[in-house]
From TrEMBL:
The keyword Transmembrane helix applies. Keywords: Membrane, Transmembrane, Transmembrane helix. This is Reverse transcriptase domain-containing protein. It comes from Photinus pyralis (Common eastern firefly). The chain crosses the membrane at residues 227-249.
Length: 251
């Protein structure tokens, strides 16, 4: 479970070390702020929600201490009946066995009802169903290509999305990306960018996302943006404004 107040505090502390204000001077400056914001969000989240190994004394959610006691008692009754070979002991064992099986079925039904009651939306069920019905080899980040094969990593997934939405587009290898774009925005370019992007619009856009929608290549889910919106809104506005003015897309 994510400690949201701690996440917001950590994010604020990290960004406070790098205050933001005014226009971004060039694409390199934009990329630096993007990297700063991305790293700050991811690091704050990892600290506020460290990975833990779930520990439970039972292998099944419906198993409980009462069933454990019944199982122990049943074993003792069986051993007693096997040694004595008395009909009364066997009857006692079989009666407890029937009761034990009945209680197991009851606990299984209760556990299933509890699970169904804990589901808050149909979207989460649909997403889980899609994941479980796929071959376990294909993780949730996989996409199906036109030839029927599946992508094996995020890079291949991004390429499939690129080809689907931007047919004919090519990707420049990362090491060869230019650090600067040969374009100098005019005051009119900045004016247009400022008309398109402001805090209110960015806030509306971020809040319109489904909180736990699948993340992009940066691993950031919308909930992380929403929880820290008060802290990161000005950074987002600066990034988007600079991108429009310089006609630049961050790496």
């Amino acid at each position: 479970v994510t400690d949201i107040p701690l996440y917001k505090h950590l994010l604020g502390e990290k960004l406070r070390e790098h205050p933001f204000g005014g226009r971004l001077s060039d694409p390199v400056d934009i990329q630096d702020v993007v990297d700063l914001l991305t790293n700050s969000i991811v690091e704050s989240f990892e600290q506020a929600c460290p990975l833990r190994t779930a520990k439970t004394p039972y292998n099944h959610p419906w198993w409980c201490r009462a069933l454990e006691k019944q199982k122990t008692r049943l074993g003792k009754l069986f051993n007693k009946a096997r040694k004595s070979k008395a009909a009364a002991d066997w009857r006692a064992y079989k009666a407890n066995l029937r009761l034990y099986k009945k209680d197991i079925r009851r606990r299984q039904r209760e556990a299933w009802r509890d699970f169904c009651s804990s589901i808050e939306s149909t979207s989460s069920v649909s997403r889980l169903n899609k994941i479980l019905t796929k071959d376990s080899y294909h993780n949730p980040a996989s996409l199906r290509r036109e030839d029927g094969s599946y992508t094996d990593n995020l890079t291949e997934t991004a390429e499939v999305l690129r080809d689907a939405h931007f047919p004919g587009a090519t990707t420049t290898p990362y090491p060869n990306w230019p650090e600067t774009i040969p374009f100098t925005p005019t005051e009119n370019d900045w004016a247009v960018a400022c008309q398109v992007v402001d805090v209110a619009r960015v806030t509306w856009a971020v809040k319109s996302f489904s909180a736990y929608k699948s993340p992009g290549l940066d691993g950031i889910i919308p909930a992380l943006l929403q929880w820290g919106l008060d802290v990161i809104a000005t950074y987002l506005v600066g990034i988007y404004t600079g991108c429009i003015a310089f006609r630049y897309i961050p790496k």
